[in-house]
Amino acid sequence: MEENYLAKWLNNELSPEELKAFEQTEEYQSYVKLKAVSSRLQAPEFDMEGTFAQIKAKTAGDTAKVIALKPYKSFLRIAAAIALLMVGAFAYLNLSNESVSTEIAETTKLT
Questions:
Q1: Residue 1: pLDDT above 50?
Q2: SS3 letters for the chain?
Q3: What gap in Å lies between CA 63 and CA 61, rounded to an integer?
Q4: How far apart are CA 25 and CA 59, in angstroms?
Q5: Contact at 8 Å (CB) between 1 and 21?
Q6: pLDDT computed for residue 85 by the predictor
Q7: pLDDT above 70 covers what percent of the chain?
């Protein structure tokens, strides 16, 4: 059997000789049943307007929550803490100009 017999048969384009040859095949009876059953199939009704109204009603109350992303704020906090520590260390080490000197074998108490 040729590959296009089925397509020609479904489109009613088979010649009488081809139709006789096609009816002699084993698959012909199952094709007839499939054609009969598929001709009764119907697509279900679909209410587009009603479905659109339902979707619109569901989404009408939803408002988008906006979260402002500010990643630089945490960076600025860390930079400010480091700068404060550096200024404090610099002040502690360089601004205390008090120096004590002693002579050889001299003892001095500093309070």
A1: no
A2: CCCCHHHHHHCCCCCHHHHHHHHCCCCHHHHHHHHHHHHCCCCCCCCHHHHHHHHHHHHHCCCCCCCCCCHHHHHHHHHHHHHHHHHHHHHHHHCCCCCCCCCCCCCCCCC
A3: 6
A4: 57
A5: yes
A6: 96
A7: 96
pTM: 0.36
The span from the CA of 6 to the CA of 22, in Å, is 8
Give CA torsion, residues 23, 28, 34, 39, to 10 deg: -10
The sign of the CA dihedral 59, 60, 61, 65 is: positive
Longest CA–CA separation in the chain, Å:
134
Backbone φ and ψ of 52, nearest 5°: -65, -40
Residue 93 pLDDT class (50, 70, 90 cuts): confident
Residues belonging to the chain: 111
Averaged pLDDT, 75-95? 91
Is the predicted pLDDT of residue 3 greater than 80, yes or no?
Answer: no
